[in-house]
Every structure is written in C-alpha cells, then in structure tokens.
Backbone:
C-alpha cells in the first residue's frame, strides 16, 4: 500500500521534472498579465490552452498558433464550435486537433490530462485562476476593457510571434491606406446602427467595422460622435433624420435565410417607411453587413470590412453621376 | 301561553324542519319556527346554541341541507337573491366600515336592491334614505364620516342602512354587542319601535337575556341547535325555563316599572348547586 | 338634503367637475405628448397633420406613425392597468391590491412568452389573440392564487391572498425565465418588452387590445355598484342581494382582461394599478360607480406622463416606460402612505 503510494508520488515528481527538463520552452521568462500578476512563462510555449474562443483562441490562430485545447460553444446539433472562427480563420474543433474543454463550465481534469505549458484566460471568465495555475503557468488577458489590439500584442509577446503580428498589422494598414487613397474619406459621412425592440441601437465604434471606418477617417453624425468611445445608446425613431449619413451600415443576421428581410421589417417597425426619410436609403446606400463578421475584431474581419467599405463606397460614388 | 296562529299567510317568515351542518358537525336540528308579523322576535340561547346560524339560514346566508325557509309563503332557495333583498334585510354582527364613508353614503348603499342597471338615484331612493335617517335619529350628522361617530351612533347608522332597504322583514344579529349600556338602550329602543310603530317584522339575536325580556314581543329559546321553547311572551318566562336553557340557576324578579320579568343568577354558595 | 349630500366626500370638487377637469387635463397632457420629444412639433403642425396629412412630411409621419399609436397605447394600457387595480382593490377590500403584485401581470407575461416560444407557424395566427392569451394567463394564475388562499381556516384573507399572489407571481416569472433561457431567440425578441415598454407599439396591437378592453369595461360598469356594497362585508352584500361567487368570478375575469390587454400592449408595467385607484379614492371617496370613469382617465394620464418622462428624461436615450412609472410611482406611493397614516 505504502509502496504504491510512494511509487505514485515518485512518478509524479519524475513527470514534473521531465516537463521542466524536456520541454523545449523550458527556459522561463517573466510576464506581467492584465491583472498585474507576474508569471514565469515558458520562452516559447507549445502546449497552450485558451479559455475564451473569441478573445483568445481566434487571435492565437491568426498569430499562427493552434492551441491544444480551447473553450467553445455547444451547437444545437450537439457539436462544439469556436464562435466566428470557421468563418474568419478556417479553423475549428473539427478541422484541427483542438480539444474542447467546455463552454460555461471548464473541465479542469481535461486540462490537467492535456499537460499544457501555458493557460490563457480572461478576467470575464467564470473559472477562477487559483486552480488553473497549479496545472500550468496561467495568464489573464483583458480584451473587453483594454481592446483587441492590446491582446494581440500580449499574445505575440507570449508566443514570440511578433513578426506575424507585424505582418497582420501591415496588411491592415495597407488596406486602410488604399481605402484612403481611393476615397476622400474626410468628406464622406458614415453611420452604424441597427433596429432593436422598436428603438435604434447606435454605436460609436462597432467592432471591426467601426474600427475600419474610424481609422480610415470617415466622418460620423454628431449624435454618434457624442456617444462615449466604445459605447452604444438606444434612441427613439424620431432621431431618424439625425442618424442619416452618406452611407449607413446595418449589421444584420447573415446566418439566417431571411435575415435581410427581417432586418428591414424590424426597421419598418421602428419607423414605418423609414427609407423615405434617409438619404442613404433613398440612394441605395443603406448597406447590410454580416453581423458575424462585423462584430469580430480579428484581422481577417478587419480585412473583409476594409474591402467591403471600399468597394461599396467607391462604386456608389463612381455611378452617382449617372443618377438624375 | 298565547296561541300563535299557524297560518302561512299570517307569517311572512317561517322555517320547516331546518337541518344545517358545517362540515361534519350538525349545527341546527329540525328547526321549525314561525315569525309573528310586525313584531320583534328575539332568538335567545347559550353560546353555540345555533341562534346566529338560524338567522343566517332564514336569510339565505347559510344553506341548510334539509328543510325549507318560507319567505312570504315561497321557498327562499327558489327566489332570486335580489328579489329576496327587496323583502328581507339582514344586518350581520360585524359589518365592515370603509374609511371616510359618510353616514348618508353608508345609508344610501341600502338602496342597492332597488336600483337598476345604471343605478339612477330616484326620488324614491332619496325619500327612503331620508326616512331611515330620521327614524334612527342620524339625519343631523348625515354628512359626517361614520368612523368619527360613537359606537351607538355608528350602530344606528347601520340600522338606518337596513331600514333604507325598505324591506318588510329585518334580521339583526347581536346588534348591541360591544356597546356600552347607554348605547345598548339607544339601539334597543330603536329596534323595538320598528315592529309596532313602523310595521316591520323584526328578528334579532341577542346576548343579554334581561334586555331581550324588556324589549321583545316574543322570545324563542334555542339550545344545542334545537328549539327549546317556541315563541313565548316575556311575561310567560319562568325561572325553570331560563335555568334549563342556560344551565345556570336563576331567580325571577319583576321590573317594578314595566312589570316584565328579570332573571338574576344565583351564586353557587347559595346552596342551589344541584338545580338543573 | 339633495344631490350635494350624495357626493359628500373629501374632495372639494363635485364629481362632474372633477371628471371634466380630469378630461381637460388629460387633453392637455395628450397635446404635450404629441408636441414634445426629441423634435418639438408645434400645435399648428398637429392641426395640419389632421387636416392635410402629408406622408412625405417627417413631422407628420412622426405624429401619426410614432407618437399617436404610442399615445393611444398609453391611454389604453394606462386605463386598463388603473381599472384592473381598482377592481382588485374592491374585490379584496385592500388598497394595496395590484395586478403586478397579485400575479396577473406575471401570468399574462408567461402566457405570451409561452405562445411566442411555440413554432413560428402558429405565431402569426396567435398575434391578434395575444390580449386574450395574456388575459387567460392572468386569469389562471390569479384564480389559482384565490383558490389557494381560500383554502384552510378563515377562508380568503388579505394576508393570505397577498402572500399567495407574490408566490405564484414569482413562480410564473421563473417559468417565464426558464422558457427564455431555453429559447434565446424569443428572449432577444422580448427582453425589453418584459421590462414594460411602449416603444414599438403598432396599430395592429392597438386594434387587438380593443375588444378585451371594451369587454372589461362593460363588466366593470356592471361590477362597480356591487363593489360599493361588497365593501361592507360579504354578509351585508349577500343581504343586499349580491351573489358573492358571481361577483368574485366576474371581477377576476374583468381584472384579468384589463391586465391582459395592457400587458399584451406594453408588457408588465407596475405602479399604475396601485396608485391610480388610491388617488381616485383619496380625491373622490368610495363610490365605485364614479371611480370607474375617474380611474380610466387618471390611469391613461399617468401612463401618458410616465412615457413622456421615459422619452424625454435622458435625451437622446430613451428609457423603458416601466422604469419611468416606477420613478414616478415610488415617490407618489410613499407620499400617499404617509398622508393616510397620519
């Protein structure tokens, strides 16, 4: 009995030692996470587990790192998926060797069994850090208050993928520059809103779509600019004229067959015949954008949004003269 | 004992073989009584003898499982509740008093059974209310809130409400409970006039034996849910009767002014322990 | 000793004067409601929109398509909530009775959410029936409440019915929440509606609420003189020719129809049903026959004002109407309690 126990402890010690000695990322480096904790993390972590699909897993994949396991969502068909990932990165639980470790409840035993060398979580996750840090070095990154760009930087620092991030950032900047060079963005007003329960939900900067519009230097109506940065407000239908712009973007549910028609019906419920009172709509410049893409903050989404904004506005301006 | 004429037409209210129970326990057994017209009949009996229950059965508040109450010669159970309310009024023991209600307002609620769908206030309604206020002596403070009045005045207001209902028969359930002596007299003086002077047939449940004897035209004694003694004149009540009904030894005196009997309890030290 | 005595009450204003004054005040509030908002529309434009409506004029459209349906919804829902409260207070002889507290609103919400969670094919068929669905939900939940609180010793008491009401209200609310947790799509559709809000009211919803409202009103006119005598206790009322069972059934039915119409229009809004009947009683005394029109008008006015506050207080934000009624209702309610407890 005692012998088995001793044997067991010894095995554990050996395993632990072997982890330290054998793993390539064994050389530790200090890292300060968004909770202000200083954590010794491997030089180049290889076995990363992500506890947040949208804010951690997708950025990691974009940086070229496939985590060994991730948080995900449970689909109605009983199969787990990474939210927005297939659409934006082409990677999901069923395409790559990523273990699903739960949605709201995270399976700690599964994490232990996978022997990770780094766990990345977020302050808004329900799982406490305490038990996680016994399993592997654990860092917490805060995308919701510090922004996605910050998280990309931190993840690049953790995984040594700064070069890859630089490339992504350069590609994005080039896209924005191209947009700016083809359009006089400072002369064009844009706005982003969507109908919500009989009112209009208006956004200062709507995720990737908003960031593209802001970075490109487009003008927004005063009502929109007065919203605190990153925030949104709900206004009544009577504000319709104050919401008008040269181009209006409405993030709609593109994951349903009748999403576009439903969006229009919802707007008509807010204000019957709304189109009549929006210049943008009268001129065919009320543009429905896939909410799934627009709401993401990934570089793929930014690229898609850049090109979507550019081609929509450019073609309207080019053919505007043809209109009486 | 006087003979009460057993003609149905002479009796606006009578019961035949009433049996009533609450749950498993029988409360009234085979009660048959006839209420004399234009008189004050008082139901008397010890606690739990079924007097209030009988009053309820006579006014369709309680439903007997056997037996019939005849109101104006017709079975009360077959009559519409609103029709009954035009013939028979009942003032229960503790009616609720809404806040801020004026005397006039309260008394006018008694007109409900006479009002139509849209409740037009007619001169008949107005006259009935004024008459009720006059009879009860409440006209002078008809504008005051009932809750600001004394107990006796308040009870007179409720009696006025019952009068405004303009029914030939009015039933009162312990109308003098919780009142001081002065107000008990005030209320009983009023009720006793209603029969002889205002042509109403009155039935009242009373607690106080001697009060009942002074004011009642007839007395009916109940015991254990049965009629112990049918309608009796006050002067015909004997000490034996009262002792038997209340299971308490009493002695009979005579009120020197009215000549009516008064019964006083005998103290147990008096050596009459074995009586009854 | 004539009519002047009949209307003797705490109010210095006789009933007809009070009624006329209230109608006039409601008219002024309705005009203000149409004029004020993020855009101020002057009275001339309102007249213009009536006489020569121009569908291309934004102000006309705002008046006719946005503010008018919403005003009408406020009137119908406010009048119904007030009447529902009045009926329940009369039935239970309790000035604290209210459709929201007693579970009628929660029952109505549960019924609406249940039908919304059904497959979409049946949804369209149910939409015009929604006020009746809601009324049925309120009726069932409150009937269960009354049945439970009538059981046991002492029959139906105020305390028992209030406790049962709160309990069944909580049960209905948690069932609603459970359905919504299982069905995220329905949740998205009605999350705001569950707070109680007038935004997004359409003419179809208004039409649908008319029939149950009218039915409830007819019942209320029948019930009101009976509540006048029911106030004096069940025995007195029976003695005066009232069938207690019939009046209880009809009152619960009418109160549920009112709550159902209101909830199907604007969601479960509290306080209106509590405050309005008490204000009417405070101002005009105990006569329920007079209280019916006064309650209808006061309820409508209160909800008009509350929705005006909801639209205006945090411009450009619009807050849910249910929050505005609470903002107005709580101080009024506390003031009322303090004044009556003196």
Residues:
């Amino acid at each position: 009995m005692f012998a088995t126990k001793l044997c067991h402890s010894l095995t554990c010690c050996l395993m632990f030692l072997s982890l330290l000695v054998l793993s390539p990322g064994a050389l530790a480096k200090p890292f300060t996470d968004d909770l202000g904790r200083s954590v010794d993390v491997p030089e180049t972590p290889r076995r990363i587990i992500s506890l947040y699909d949208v804010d951690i897993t997708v950025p990691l994949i974009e940086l070229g790192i496939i985590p060994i396991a991730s948080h995900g969502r449970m689909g109605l068909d009983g199969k787990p998926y990474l939210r927005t990932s297939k659409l934006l990165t082409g990677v999901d639980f069923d395409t790559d060797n990523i273990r699903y470790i739960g949605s709201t409840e995270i399976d700690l035993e599964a994490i232990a069994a996978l022997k990770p060398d780094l766990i990345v979580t977020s302050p808004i996750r329900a799982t406490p850090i305490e038990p996680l840090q016994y399993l592997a070095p654990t860092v917490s990154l805060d995308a919701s208050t510090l922004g996605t760009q910050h998280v990309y930087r931190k993840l690049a620092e953790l995984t040594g993928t700064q070069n890859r991030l630089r490339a992504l950032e350069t590609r994005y900047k080039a896209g924005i520059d191209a947009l700016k060079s083809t359009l006089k963005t400072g002369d064009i007003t844009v706005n982003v809103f969507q109908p919500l329960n009989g009112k209009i939900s208006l956004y200062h900067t709507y995720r990737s779509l908003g960031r593209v519009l802001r970075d490109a230097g487009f003008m927004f109506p005063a009502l929109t600019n007065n919203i605190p940065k990153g925030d949104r407000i709900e206004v009544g239908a009577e504000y319709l004229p104050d919401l008008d712009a040269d181009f209006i973007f409405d993030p709609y549910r593109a994951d349903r067959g009748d999403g576009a028609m439903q969006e229009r019906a919802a707007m008509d419920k807010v204000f019957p015949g709304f189109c009549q009172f929006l210049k943008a709509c009268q001129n065919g410049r009320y543009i429905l954008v896939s909410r799934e893409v627009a709401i993401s903050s990934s570089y793929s989404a930014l690229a898609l949004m850049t090109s979507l904004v550019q081609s929509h506005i450019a073609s309207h301006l080019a053919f505007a003269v043809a209109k009486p | 004992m006087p003979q009460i004429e057993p003609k149905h037409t002479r009796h606006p209210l009578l019961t035949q073989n009433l049996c009533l129970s609450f749950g498993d326990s029988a409360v009234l057994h085979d009660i048959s009584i006839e209420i004399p017209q234009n008189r004050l009949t008082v139901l008397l009996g010890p606690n739990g003898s079924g007097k209030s229950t009988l009053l309820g059965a006579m006014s369709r508040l309680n439903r007997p499982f056997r037996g019939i109450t005849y109101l104006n010669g017709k079975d009360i159970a077959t009559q519409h509740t609103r029709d009954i309310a035009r013939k028979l009024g009942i003032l229960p023991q503790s009616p609720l008093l809404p806040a801020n209600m004026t005397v006039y307002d309260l008394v006018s609620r008694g007109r409900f059974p006479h009002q139509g769908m849209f409740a037009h206030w007619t001169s008949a309604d107005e006259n009935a209310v004024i008459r009720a206020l006059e009879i009860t002596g409440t006209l002078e403070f008809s504008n005051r809130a009932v809750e600001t009045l004394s107990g006796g005045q308040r009870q007179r207001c409720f009696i006025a409400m019952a009068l405004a209902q303009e029914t030939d028969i009015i039933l009162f359930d312990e109308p003098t409970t919780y009142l001081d002596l002065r107000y008990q007299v005030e209320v009983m003086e009023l009720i006793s006039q209603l029969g002889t002077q205002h042509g109403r047939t009155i039935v009242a449940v009373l607690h106080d034996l001697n009060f009942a004897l002074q004011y009642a035209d007839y007395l009916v004694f109940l015991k254990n849910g049965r009629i112990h003694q049918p309608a009796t004149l006050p002067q015909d009540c004997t000490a034996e009767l009262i002792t038997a009904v209340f299971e308490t030894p009493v002695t009979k005196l005579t009120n020197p002014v009215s000549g009516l009997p008064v019964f006083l309890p005998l103290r147990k030290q008096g050596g009459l322990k074995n009586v009854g | 000793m004539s009519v002047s005595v009949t209307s003797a009450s705490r109010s210095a204003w006789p009933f007809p004067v009070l009624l006329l004054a209230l109608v006039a005040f409601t008219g002024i509030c309705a005009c203000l409601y149409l004029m004020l908002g993020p855009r101020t529309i002057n009275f001339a434009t309102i007249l213009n929109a009536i006489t020569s409506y121009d569908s291309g004029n934004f102000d006309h459209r705002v008046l006719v398509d946005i503010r008018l349906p919403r005003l009408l919804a406020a009137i119908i829902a406010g009048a119904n909530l007030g009447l529902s409260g009045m009926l329940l207070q009369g039935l239970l002889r309790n000035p604290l009775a209210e459709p929201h507290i007693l579970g009628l609103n929660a029952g109505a919400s549960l019924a609406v959410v249940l039908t919304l969670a059904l497959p979409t094919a049946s949804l369209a068929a149910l939409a015009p029936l929604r006020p009746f669905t809601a009324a049925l939900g309120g009726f069932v939940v409150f009937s269960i409440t009354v049945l439970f609180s009538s059981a046991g010793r002492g029959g139906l008491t105020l305390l028992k019915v209030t406790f049962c009401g709160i309990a069944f209200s909580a049960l209905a609310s948690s069932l609603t929440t459970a359905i919504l947790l299982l069905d995220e799509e329905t949740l998205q559709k009605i999350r705001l509606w569950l707070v109680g809000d007038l935004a997004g009211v359409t003419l179809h919803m208004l039409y649908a609420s008319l029939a149950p409202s009218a039915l409830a009103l007819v019942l209320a006119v029948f019930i009101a003189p009976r509540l006048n005598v029911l106030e004096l206790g069940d025995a007195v009322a029976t003695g005066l020719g009232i069938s207690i069972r019939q009046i209880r059934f009809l009152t619960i039915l009418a109160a549920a129809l009112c709550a159902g119409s209101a909830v199907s229009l604007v969601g479960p809004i509290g306080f209106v049903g509590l405050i309005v009947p008490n204000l009417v009683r405070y101002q005009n005394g105990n006569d329920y026959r007079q209280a019916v029109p006064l309650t209808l008008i006061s309820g409508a006015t209160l909800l008009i004002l509350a929705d005006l506050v909801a639209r205006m207080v945090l411009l450009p934000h619009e807050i849910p109407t249910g929050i505005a009624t609470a903002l107005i209702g709580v101080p009024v309610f506390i003031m009322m309690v303090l004044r009556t407890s003196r």
Observations:
- Chain C touches chain B at residues 1-3, 5-6, 8-10, 93, 221-222, 225-226, 228-229, 231-233, 235-236, 238-243, 285-287, 289 (CB under 8 Å).
- The two ends of chain C are 31 Å apart (CA to CA).
- The domain at 9-341 of chain C is CATH 1.10.3470.10 (ABC transporter involved in vitamin B12 uptake, BtuC).
- The longest helix of chain C spans residues 58-92.
